[in-house]
Amino acid sequence: MSPSLRIIYASTSGHTEFVVQTLVSALHDLAPDVPVDVRRAEEAAPDDLLRADALILASGTWNTGGQEGQLNPHMHALLLERAAGIDLAGKPMAFISLGDDRYYFTTRCTEHFLRFMREHGGTQLLPPLIILNEPYEQAGKIEAWAERLHRCILRSG
Ligand SMILES: Cc1cc2nc3c(=O)[nH]c(=O)nc-3n(C[C@H](O)[C@H](O)[C@H](O)COP(=O)(O)O)c2cc1C
Questions:
Q1: Distance CA 136, CA 106 (A)
Q2: pLDDT digits over 60-91, tens only?
Q3: Which of 19, 74, 103 gets mutated to test ligand 1 (max ligand atoms within 8 A of its CB)?
Q4: Vertex 62 angle, CA 61 and 67, to 5°
């Protein structure tokens, strides 16, 4: 049976949502039999991080709490508050980070994802997909990452 994939994302102006939609479409073309469940961070419970065989988290970088370089507020609330006590038990994971080069702490939400994984016992499937500035002309980069992700999921399944 194909390993299942869950994507949980936070998106305020729609950039991360576009990246996730492009990824899902590319994965569907590569592997129509891989079940992909997509949900927004604000609608996710901590258990949702554990349900599929592999987990993708996606967020833009924000000034959550008044300081730049943070996770989107909805991803922050899920990972650092609601799921603060979770045991990821080796869960294979990968991350998608967005940001804008107008900010000093550019795309630094990546670090929060990696710390969350380390502190809660997750396993990284492949290096993060980092999208700088508007994603709309970057479909090729997203599709290339989808291919790598697909290969990694098959190996881990
Ligand atoms: C209030 C605010 C704070 C932001 N802070 C940062 C930041 O610290 N570092 C960064 O690289 N981008 C920062 N950004 C840019 C967003 O991460 C970027 O526009 C991203 O593509 C937004 O994704 P979304 O539309 O999915 O939420 C910020 C944007 C806003 C509106």
A1: 18
A2: 999 999 999 999 999 999 999 999 999 999 99
A3: 103
A4: 125
pTM: 0.98
DSSP H or E segment with residue 99: strand 92-99
Residue 157 has a pLDDT of 61
Confirm if 44 and 78 have CB atoms less than 8 A apart.
yes
CA separation for the pair 27, 33 (Å, rounded): 10
CA distance 94 to 7: 9
Q: Which two tokens stand for residue 33?
A: 């039999």
Nearest alpha carbon, ligand 1 atom 6: 62
Please report, for residues 23, 33, 34, 94, 117, the alpha-carbon distance to residue 30 in angstroms, rounded to integers and kept in the order given. 10, 9, 9, 18, 27
68 lines ligand 1 (CB under 6 A): yes
The domains of the chain, with CATH numbers, are 5-156 (3.40.50.360)
Length of the chain: 157
Q: Which residue has the tokens 């107008």?
A: 102
